[in-house]
Amino acid sequence: MDKLLTGGNLRRVGLLIALTGWIGFDHLGQAQDDTVLVQPPAYSEENQLRGPIVKDIEIEFAGSQSVDRSLILSNMRTTIGQPYSPAAVQEDVRNLYATGQFVNLRIFDEPLGDGVKVVLIVQPKPVIKQIIVTGADRISEKRVRKEMKSKAGEPLSEQQVAEDARNVRIYYHEKGFPDATVEYKFDVNEQIGRAVVTITVDEGSKSYVRDVNFVGNDSFETKELRKLFKTRKKNLLFFLNKSGIFREEWFDEDLKKLRAFYQDNGYIDFAVKDIQYDQAEEDVLDITITIFEGIQYRVGSMSFESNTIFSREQILSRLRATEGTINEGGVFSPSGLQSSVSAINTLYGERGYIDASSVPERQPNIETGKMDILYRINEGEQAYVQKIIIQGNNETKDKVLRRELALAPGDIYDTVRVDASKLRLDNLGYFSQVDATPRDTSVPNRKDLVVTVEEQRTGSVTFGAGFSTIDSLLGFAEVSQGNFDIGNWPTFRGGGQKFRARIQYGLTRQDALISWTEPWFLDRQISFGFDLFYNNSDFISSRFNQRRYGAAIRVGKALNQFWSIGLRYQAENIEIYDVDQTLPQFFQDEAGVRSKSSVRATLLYDNRDSLFLTRQGEKLEFALEGAGGPLLGDTDIWKAEIEGSKWWSLPWDMIFSIRAATGVADGFDGNDVPLFDRFFIGGNRTVRGFAFREIGPVQGGEESGGKTMAYTNFETTFPIMDNVRGAVFLDAGINNANTFDYSIGSLGVGTGVGLRLNLPIGPLRFDLGTPLLKNNRSTDDFDIEFHFDVGYQF
Hints:
Elements: H1 7-22, H2 45-50, E1 54-61, H3 69-74, H4 86-98, E2 102-112, E3 115-124, E4 127-134, H5 141-145, H6 158-174, E5 181-189, E6 194-202, E7 208-215, H7 222-226, H8 238-241, H9 248-264, E8 271-278, E9 284-292, E10 298-305, H10 312-321, H11 334-350, E11 357-365, E12 370-378, E13 384-391, H12 398-402, H13 415-428, E14 431-440, E15 446-455, E16 459-468, E17 472-484, E18 497-506, E19 509-518, E20 526-537, E21 545-558, E22 563-577, H14 585-590, E23 592-606, E24 617-627, E25 637-650, E26 654-667, E27 698-699, E28 702-703, E29 708-721, E30 724-736, E31 748-759, E32 762-774, E33 777-778, E34 785-790
Parallel strand pairs: 1-3, 4-6, 7-9, 10-12, 13-15
Antiparallel strand pairs: 2-3, 5-6, 8-9, 11-12, 14-15, 16-17, 17-18, 18-19, 19-20, 20-21, 21-22, 22-23, 23-24, 24-25, 25-26, 26-29, 27-28, 29-30, 30-31, 31-32, 32-33, 32-34
């Protein structure tokens, strides 16, 4: 016995006892302390330098032997015949835990001849023998099991089983069982390493929310308060918006929103006094919320303490000019108070007092309903920028970041300009995270601006397919790089340039494009770029085809935050071919190849809050194009176009927008406007409810295009559920054969409804439209035109 309990055997028995005693399924699914016990014996000097040779690997089990020896060895770097390495053993521990098969394990070594024996003591997780579901009556057991990831034959993970139970409970709630509870337990046979999992469901009664009522709401109507709640009565779209479902976590959030709503309207003493759940009928649930509104507080006097740089009037003027703040006589709210503090700090930050702070002290008066506020201000000292330190940009050149910064060394440390700089860097799309923070220096009143970025992938290779009611079915392949550097071979990254190459082939069109842009040409804020393009279009008409190919050079400059100008020179060849011989002479004359050399100038104003889902703002673009004359080519025309859009954010997350556009074209030197340069409207990008190109002059049953066009779109979108919005629209447009002819003889008006889906593959637009007027005449035909489009319209 003394011989048995000596040296490595004694240590091994101790570990076995510790592991066996530790077995407890409160910790299942968690990787335990992976300390590696390594006590190398005294080996020869040579072995100490290169590590002793592993002579044997012994595996011992604490509990059942439910894991195959080959699985353990296949996840280890340590192997027989190779030098022993503590670093490799540490990696072995991590790898074995990562298999998810073990509750705990230990690895140590013992001397064996002139080498070492590696001993593993492992405690495998029990394997799930069976999963029993009880109590699932009104929802089938088979359907309940679909909400569970745990499977028989897999290692038992308490964390996963708990998640399965939670998912089953959520599913029951979504199916109208608000009182459903789900519990779980394990029955473990430690000798054979098997476990039986039991999921017990108490379904409760099935019911949907029929009504949410409020008592004590004297200041706000019930229907206004209901709009705050995600918990709401069941409606016709319940299968999409989950109306009628009662979930406790949703209801808790609803109550928080209710409290925030009242406090933002000055009712600081608001409280929920009682909540009653009434199930008067078997399948319905009525909720009654009794509230105490209290009095509405208004802002009394506002005073400031220790302000020497700005006077009281200067601070009050800033507060009055800043949206969301509170002012004397106005309604008091906590969010407004926080906005006021931020506005005061920003006022000081603009002057470089970046350490300034203002602490508000509220002084309520219940009798008068006034809230006096004293701001205690600590102004600190004015700071200047000493150095700008950029870090984290492993690929992107420093100058690409520095040219976006709105301040330089020696400037006052203006926090507003720092925030603007951070926003510019965010908008580049090169970085997943941008931080701009001050750092103290050894020089008084001097701060270093430290800009830390975390780069993200800016290039992509994409393949896909698309469909729209205009372009039909097509497939595409595209290579793009948003942080391109034409001079950085072979990676071509880090210069802040834009590169795009795209090929698409479809049933009705074939396209190829190579595009490159340098946004800071010659290190000046002037963009420069070029395009090479090819386009072959069959969708324009079933009676002729059109092909265009050529090149363009572009320059542009931002005039300020909202205004920009651009100039584009384009040289191309346009071919009209396969013209139906039954078409009038106008189309026969258009057949053949014609060259075009043109210049297009644009002036753009854009202050939209978002390019992707605009809720408010304006966009206005003026464009003037001239071709031929001194520019040479076979096409002598001019064009003028204006397009404007405006968005309004409405209550309940509705968005109303108006878009209007007009254009005129004419030839000069006795030339007419060719077919490919005429205006065509109708379809999902102009006037919905009409087929593509349907509005305008017609010759021989074929649309021949106009020289004057105008159209407008009125649209309101509203939320249906996450990433899904509904739409209603009214469109109208004219398209006439003569220049500056705005007569309404060709007027077409369409209306309809639509859906907007924002999916990971991109945004989808579905519209169903019907014409109200055709050629300025009402129509009794209830024609339905389906419009489908993919992508953003910038």
